C-alpha cells in the first residue's frame, strides 16, 4: 500500500551526501571493471590480445569519462564563502532523470566489459544502448508527433445558423 500524503522532499545536504556516495560507487564500478578487463586481457591473455582489445578498451574509457563527467557536473555543489552549502546540485538518484540514463550506460558498459573477457562477442550487447535511446526517442518525441491527429478544419457555419445563434444570444440578455 502506497503511503498517503505528500512525498517528502530532500534537503540540500542530503542530496549532496547522496550524490557523493553515488559518484563514489560508480567510480568503484568503473575501476573494478577496468581492472578485471586489464588483468585478463593484458596480463593473462597478453599474447592473444589484438588491436581490437585496445580499441574496445578506449571505447569503454570514452563512455566512462563522458558519462561520469556529465554526472559529476550535474551533481556539482555550490558553497558560500563561509563554507556553508548553498546548492547540493541536481539529485543523481532522482527517478526518470538524465542521471538515471547515464548510470545505466555506465553499468551496461561495465557488464559488457567484464563479460567480454569470456568472449569478444559480448561487445555486441552494447548495441542495447543505442536501441534504448531510439526507443525513448520514439516513445517520447517522434511517435506522438507522427501519430498526432491533424487539427481538423473548423466547420464552416452557414450564415443562417450564425444569425439564429446571435439572435438567441441577444434574447438571453
Could you characterize the architecture of this molecule?
There is one protein chain. The protein is mainly α. It contains 5 helices and 2 strands. A two-stranded antiparallel ribbon has the order 1-2. It is elongated. The model has no long low-confidence stretch (mean pLDDT 85).
Provide a compact summary of the structure:
This protein has 173 residues and is mainly α.
Attribute tags:
about 170 residues; 5 helices
Helix-strand topology string = HHEEHHH
Proportion in β-strands: under 5%
Computed over alpha carbons, the radius of gyration is 27 Å
Helical residue percent band? 55-70%
Q: Give the neighbour order of strands across the main sheet.
A: 1-2
Describe the biggest sheet? 2 strands, antiparallel
Record the SSE blueprint.
Blueprint: H1 12-44, H2 51-74, E1 78-79, E2 85-87, H3 98-115, H4 128-147, H5 159-172
Antiparallel strand pairs: 1-2
Amino acid at each position: 500500500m502506497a503511503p498517503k500524503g505528500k512525498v517528502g522532499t530532500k534537503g540540500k545536504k542530503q542530496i549532496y551526501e547522496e550524490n557523493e556516495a553515488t559518484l563514489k560507487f560508480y567510480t568503484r564500478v568503473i575501476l573494478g571493471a577496468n581492472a578485471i578487463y586489464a588483468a585478463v586481457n593484458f596480463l593473462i591473455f597478453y599474447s592473444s590480445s589484438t588491436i581490437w582489445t585496445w580499441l574496445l578498451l578506449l571505447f569503454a574509457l570514452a563512455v566512462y569519462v563522458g558519462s561520469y563527467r556529465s554526472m559529476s557536473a550535474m551533481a556539482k555543489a555550490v558553497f558560500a564563502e563561509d563554507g556553508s552549502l548553498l546548492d547540493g546540485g541536481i539529485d543523481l538518484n532522482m527517478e526518470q532523470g538524465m542521471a538515471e540514463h547515464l548510470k545505466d550506460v555506465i553499468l551496461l558498459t561495465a557488464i559488457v566489459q567484464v563479460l567480454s573477457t569470456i568472449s569478444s562477442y559480448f561487445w555486441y550487447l552494447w548495441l542495447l544502448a543505442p536501441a534504448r535511446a531510439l526507443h525513448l526517442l520514439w516513445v517520447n518525441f517522434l511517435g506522438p508527433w507522427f501519430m498526432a491527429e491533424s487539427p481538423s478544419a473548423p466547420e464552416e457555419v452557414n450564415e443562417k445558423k450564425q444569425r439564429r445563434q446571435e439572435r438567441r444570444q441577444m434574447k438571453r440578455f
